[in-house]
């Protein structure tokens, strides 16, 4: 393996800027690595070899011309297949968009290009970002580089596995109920969900519009912060984008790395330390919390009584929004069309197209959402879930009057074996137990590796108030300094 | 909350424009029943006086300047269409023939 694939994004950018290596060399090293290991990992749905090399050459030319390069120029990045890429296939892990080449770029992808990063390709995901294991991808599961018989988390399993397999130093995910943080946790990598509205949804294929949040994935906290800075900030093309600057997450990560948390007060979520999590996960979490205390943080317990209802509320709200959002996949404007033999009506063709194009989990969620929104059930299901969302938000608000950030394990359990939870959909949903509250509230949250349980990575979650993304990076970087990063076994 | 019947699943599938198979009706009836029973837990929360939250960002009436910006060409907009004709998306018949004629 080339050494270049083992470097952090910061190190790669430094070498490219100083001319010690070229962006083309860095890109070739990562493309070679993908060629060597991706048949075993299946992190990528599409590798854009030519596009990546062209982008890398452009960076090298700009450097040769004396142009100033950004902090991530020449660094390869893998992009979750939920974001549109002009002329490059975008499937959302679904058969219904197989072969679709979007006519426009998402804002995130545009900003990545403007920053001089090199997009390697599109990563595998649960279909329409619905799932916690990447097993619901229509193109086959991604495998966890720590143990290829286990899941890499989901829905962004491809983006996380690409990092752990050293196929890319940076990747982009999207987090609706934990799809960045849970894959980060089970692959021993860093995944951050920014404040909702802090990153643009323009060009993000919509699943649940009030929750969907694109964000950065990396192997180190500082790399994640640099990527966050590049992709974040107001976008006039997204009406829910918050018109304020991104907090200085890079400075916060650097501050955290000094290892001093004096004056920082952290709250352990009482409701998430009970019997919901595996003992090995809780042990790693407790040890990490102790490490933070040694750095000067004050650790207290905080009760958030409504967090226990976050999971059921989410599995009403997200399916309801999805049942409406996915109505656009009707076989008319893009993607698959099935059964158009000249005799069938539009409605019949739509129904056959959606039946053939959607996988079982997507169908389940569309039907659950349709049920929850129907007259007669609306008040008891969707309406009640929205009220619970208010109560969860109030739990956060009152917690942040007592502490600077909340902490918990990211997931209740380590990476589970492929196939072990697909028979019972609700068992799969439990993977999101600890990540969902932050989505319903809208505040930022990050998962950072904190140790191993039975040889598999455990994630530590830090949740901060809305727009205080910098605060979670500070704590995350301090934790990373104290417990170190995790190195997966050689594939 | 009660389990969900095969007929109810068939109704939901129709509303959702999903031409599900007979076999799927059986599978989904069981699975949707389990999911709905679990999510019905939200009903345990006393929330009668609580206002609903539809969105975490309280932005309203977000407008931009009304200026001309570049958009997609008709060719680009139609590039992913399963069927197109004369710069339009071509769809299967919507009206019955005798009505259309």
Q: What does it look like?
A:
The complex is a heterodimer of chains A (491) and B (101). Chain A has helices at residues 9-18, 23-41, 49-64, 107-114, 157-164, 181-187, 221-231, 249-257, 279-294, 310-325, 346-357, 360-373, 379-402, 425-429, 436-441, 469-483, and strands spanning 44-47, 76-80, 118-123, 170-175, 190-193, 213-218, 265-269, 298-302, 405-409, 445-453, 456-463. Chain A has 491 residues and is of the alpha/beta class. Chain A has a domain at 3-255: Amidase signature (AS) enzymes (Alpha-Beta Complex), CATH 3.90.1300.10. In chain A, strand 10 (445-453) and strand 11 (456-463) form a beta hairpin. Chain B is mainly α and 101 residues long. Chain B has a domain at 6-44: Histone, subunit A (Orthogonal Bundle). Chain B is 36% helix and 4% strand. Chain B is built from 4 helices and 2 strands, in the order H-H-H-E-E-H. A two-stranded antiparallel sheet of chain B has the order 1-2. The mean pLDDT of chain B is 90.
